[in-house]
Design a protein that fits this description.
single chain; 383 residues; alpha/beta; Spore Coat Polysaccharide Biosynthesis Protein SpsA, Chain A; 60s Ribosomal Protein L30, Chain: A; 2 domains; 18 strands; 29% helix; elongated
């Protein structure tokens, strides 16, 4: 059974933002806003599936925004946001997930911790939860003539955000019960159906992008994002053999490589680079070479472990760059196979992966064809 699904609601028209397109398809830092939002959930280790609700006329815009991502087909929205959410929820009935998180596509800055808090708030006894921020500003009620009529007590007042999380069967029944009503969000649907809704702390940066000014603010937020770059290096000597493993691909050669696991210097260097972005030591501290269980193992196991650790910290792999240093074998004929294999392990698009090769022009132990070295760099964005 699927544990938790994120339903991204992207069926609105968003005309106040300007720009000629629905706001969810306009770009932030050169990337469609919807893609930013989807990736926040797709990279969260407790989200098993991401499904998007779109306007029936927006298929081409949607496909462009999520190109290269592995998502199930989008769901068509309805006449209102409430209708769209109900359509999306009902589309999941065959799989019946335990939990569902419903999130606005126009909130692309939701952070890793907020998503986690909403999920952790859900239980049989607490079937609904929403991210929210306590109101800090003094509130005034206008009298209708442009003057202050009263000051509103802000005690116990919260600003609702998304994601809003629910036990799936509970919110499905609530939406069906409240069909035809006019509720502003899914928490209101739950309230009207008699479900208790838990408040959990959101994040002030989890803004809803609505106007051109919001887009400008969003660009500033992205400019101040937590982006980390780290490097890795590895080298292995040749030994007897008939192939070498490089970046997960077997290259025919008159010798093999000696060392830890299958001695894939490319995957080892890249593993260390990813571990470096979260300060998690090196490959040897996670997989000691003295431990016989790692003898001859596929180095993809090590790289996948590093990927999981990075994602567990809220990281999104933005780019990796790998340089292989050797006189032989020739890397060029295998470069695309290597990029494809790395894309599979890292779960990123191949255009975010660079694999290069160079020699030392005959100098040093590499020039004497005594082994192969690799250096890697990884760039990771943290929510």
């Amino acid at each position: 059974m699927t544990e938790t699904v994120a339903l991204i609601v992207a069926g609105g028209r968003g005309v106040r933002a300007g720009g000629g397109l629905p706001k969810q398809y306009q770009t932030l830092a050169g990337i469609p806003m919807l893609r930013h939002t989807v990736l926040r959930f797709a990279n969260h280790p407790k989200i098993d599936q991401v499904r998007v609700v779109i306007h029936p006329d927006d298929h081409a815009l949607y496909e462009n925004a999520v190109e290269g991502l592995s998502l199930p087909p989008p769901v068509h929205g309805g006449a209102t946001r409430q209708d769209s959410c109900r359509n999306g929820i009902e589309a999941l009935e065959a799989s019946t997930p335990t939990n569902i998180l419903i999130h606005d596509a126009a909130r692309p800055f939701v952070d890793f911790e907020t998503i986690s808090r909403v999920i952790e708030s859900l239980s049989e006894e607490a079937p609904a939860a929403l991210a929210a921020i306590p109101v800090a500003d003094t509130l005034k009620r206008a009298d209708g003539s442009g003057q202050v009529g009263a000051t509103v007590d802000r005690t116990n007042l919260w600003r609702a955000q998304t994601p809003q999380g629910f036990r799936y069967t509970a919110i499905l029944q609530a939406h069906r019960q409240e069909a035809g009503q006019d509720h502003t969000d899914d928490a209101a649907v739950a309230e009207a159906a008699g479900l208790p809704v838990t408040l959990t702390l959101g994040n002030a940066e989890n803004i809803k992008v609505t106007t051109a000014e919001d887009f400008a603010h969003g660009e500033r937020l992205l400019g101040a994002a937590d982006i980390r770059t780290a490097t890795g290096f590895d080298v292995h000597p040749f030994e007897e053999g008939d192939h070498v493993m490089l970046c997960g691909v077997a290259l025919p050669h008159d010798r093999g490589l000696a060392g830890h696991s299958d001695s894939d210097v490319g995957l080892h260097a890249l593993t260390d680079a990813l571990l470096g972005t979260i300060g998690a030591g090196d490959i040897g501290s996670h997989f000691p070479p003295s431990d016989p269980q790692w003898r001859g193992v596929d180095s993809a196991v090590f790289l996948s472990h590093a990927v999981d650790l990075v994602r567990g910290k809220g990281g999104t792999i933005r780019h990796v760059d790998l340089t292989l240093i050797c006189e032989a074998p020739k890397v060029g004929p295998h470069r695309e196979a290597m990029r494809s294999r790395l894309a599979d392990i890292l779960c990123v698009e191949t255009d975010r992966i660079s694999v290069k090769a160079t020699t030392t022009d005959g100098l040093g132990f590499l020039g004497r064809r005594e082994g192969i070295a690799a250096q890697a760099a990884a760039t990771v964005l943290f929510a």
